[in-house]
Structures are given as C-alpha cells and as structure tokens.
Amino acid sequence: MKCLLLVDLQNGFCPGGNLAVAGGHEVIPVANRLMAEGGYDLIVASQDWHPADHGSFASNHPGRQPFEMGELAGKPQMLWPDHCVQHTDDAALHPDLDRSKIAYIQRKGMNRHVDSYSAFRDNDRTAHTGLAEFLKGRGVTDLDIGGLATDYCVQASAIDAVEMLPGVRVRFVKDLSRGIDPATIKAAEQAMAAAGVQTVTSAEILHEAG
C-alpha cells in the first residue's frame, strides 16, 4: 500500500500568502504529476488550520515581532506572522492542486496553546492528530512525503512517520518540497536521513511507477 503525503500545500505558504516560502508554488505541478502518475494507492494531505488567537502568532504576544524567538507552553517557539487562520483563503489548499485525488485531509494546529509542525502530532509530542492511526488502518507500507516547508512541517512529519509507523518505508521527496532557509533546510535533510528517512526525487518515483 503506497501512500503520498502532501504537507501543507496551502495559499499561506505560497507567494502572496502570509507565510510564503520562496518557490512554494513550484511544487504544485510536481504534486499533481505524482498524484496522476506515481502509482500511489492512497493520497493524503495535511492542512494548517489555526484559530486566530493561536499562541505561535507574534500578534498575540504584545511587543513581539514575527520571526523572533518566544515561548509557548513553556518551550522555545518561533513567533510567526498570522497564517492559515481557519476559514480564510490563506488556509485554503492551493487552487491549482488537484483535490480530486486526495482521499483524506488531516487538519492540524487547532490547539492555540501548542504549535503543530508535524502532520502526526503536536510539537509537545503528546496530542496525536489521528493521521498515524488512519494510515495504519489502511495498511500503508510505503509513505512518500513532501510539501511546505522542508525545514519545519515536512521534516517533523517525516521523522514522526518513522517513529509512529514502525515497519513503513518513509521517503522525503526533495523536489516536491521547498524550505525557508538554506542552513535549516540542510540541517533538516541531515536530521531526516539520521532518522532513517530516504531521499528521492519525483523523477525516480515516476520511473519506479513505469
């Protein structure tokens, strides 16, 4: 059972969005081609879905600015611009993404007291989203992951997948992903590799699919 997980392919993380990742829109055609030709049995997506008063937003910390380090739930927290607020266009999946092939969408980041980079659990590592249980129930054996952003939500999702889906082969699809900072992208790729995540390209996946 081969599955593709598309991480946070939302307007908010693409050019023009509130927390845009450079070149974020460039992964949409890659995602569409993989969904159509990658030989997947199951395609799922994650979606940041924050309340307006989320504690990771700098606007909810008087005197603080986006991209400063703050604190949330007693832990260091990057303070972000308001982004992917529930029921806004910023939170919507990118309009060019082929929604018709996505079987399941896992929303995350709804608890204002903790951030949620991973599609599988909150950053405090206690509250699970339910995605791992869903994939186990479908008998997934191979999981390819890509999206936005490499150095935050993609990294966290891939590493959690290795831990929470024992026996499943987890791969990071490099050209299906874009990141925020070259240094943290490199560190994320190293961390994923150290956790047992393989790196592949969409071309390799398409070749496998024949």
Automatic annotation (TrEMBL):
EC number(s) stated in the UniProt entry for this protein: 3.5.1.19
MF GO annotations: nicotinamidase activity
Annotated ranges, domain Isochorismatase-like: 3-204
Pfam (any one): Isochorismatase
InterPro entries listed in its UniProt record: Isochorismatase-like_dom, Isochorismatase-like_sf, Isochorismatase_Nicotinamidase
Keywords per UniProt: Hydrolase, Metal-binding, Pyridine nucleotide biosynthesis
SUPFAM superfamilies reported for this sequence: Isochorismatase-like hydrolases
Pathway given in the UniProt record: Cofactor biosynthesis; nicotinate biosynthesis; nicotinate from nicotinamide: step 1/1
The keyword DNA damage appears for this protein: no
Superkingdom: Bacteria
Family: Belongs to the isochorismatase family.
Protein name, per record: nicotinamidase
Organism this protein belongs to: Mycoplana ramosa (Mycoplana bullata)
Gene designation per UniProt: pncA
